[in-house]
Amino acid sequence: MKFKEETIDKETLYEGKIVDLNLHDVRLPNGEVSKREIVNHPGAVAIIAYTADDKIIMVRQFRKALEKEIIEIPAGKLETGEQPEETAKRELEEETGYKTDQLTKIGSFYTSPGFSDEIVHVYEAHTLYAGTVATDDDEFVELIEVTLDEADKLIESGDIHDAKTMFAIQHVKLKRIQNS
């Protein structure tokens, strides 16, 4: 690797429920030493799920880091030892009350590679059936269903303002263009 940075020392600054923060001393490709603050995250999934009438299932929730409510596709953190597809099925049911036996992976992406190793695996779910909503004790969500046009308007208004949801909406739009 041409630009590899070798970690020569590492200090854990914080170990949390969702993320850990580590400070790395690294040797740069030119031999100099620098510091890197790295947020470690176990990874996550996001699910773009469709109702029988082709609406997209989303959730509205307050995001403390942003100090506002946003609308997102259902998503959640990987648990230790859990495969992304299992997490996607679990999170879909927990947040929306819908279950599926058919998930299609549409891609993965790193959220902020400059300081975090978090990767989000995005799935698509079409054939849904009733399950049970079981949000976490500290999780409050409102279920909403939108058309693709309504999703575009929510992006324009800033109500949808996160990468995973925008990535999923773009996927749907491209897929529809390819299939027309």
From TrEMBL:
InterPro entries linked: NDP_pyrophosphatase, Nudix_hydrolase, NUDIX_hydrolase-like_dom_sf, NUDIX_hydrolase_CS, NUDIX_hydrolase_dom
Keyword vocabulary terms for this entry: Hydrolase, Magnesium, Metal-binding
GO biological process, one term: ribose phosphate metabolic process
Gene Ontology cellular-component annotations: cytosol
Taxonomy of the source species: Bacteria, Bacillati, Bacillota, Bacilli, Bacillales
Sites where the protein binds Mg(2+): 75, 91, 95, 139
Family: Belongs to the Nudix hydrolase family.
Short motif Nudix box, span: 76-98
Family annotation (Pfam families): NUDIX
Keyword Metal-binding carried by entry: yes
Domain Nudix hydrolase: 39-168
One MF annotation (Gene Ontology) recorded for this entry: pyrophosphatase activity
Family matches, as SUPFAM superfamilies: Nudix
Cofactor(s) required for function per UniProt: Mg(2+)
Protein name from the UniProt record: ADP-ribose pyrophosphatase
Subunit-level organization: Homodimer.
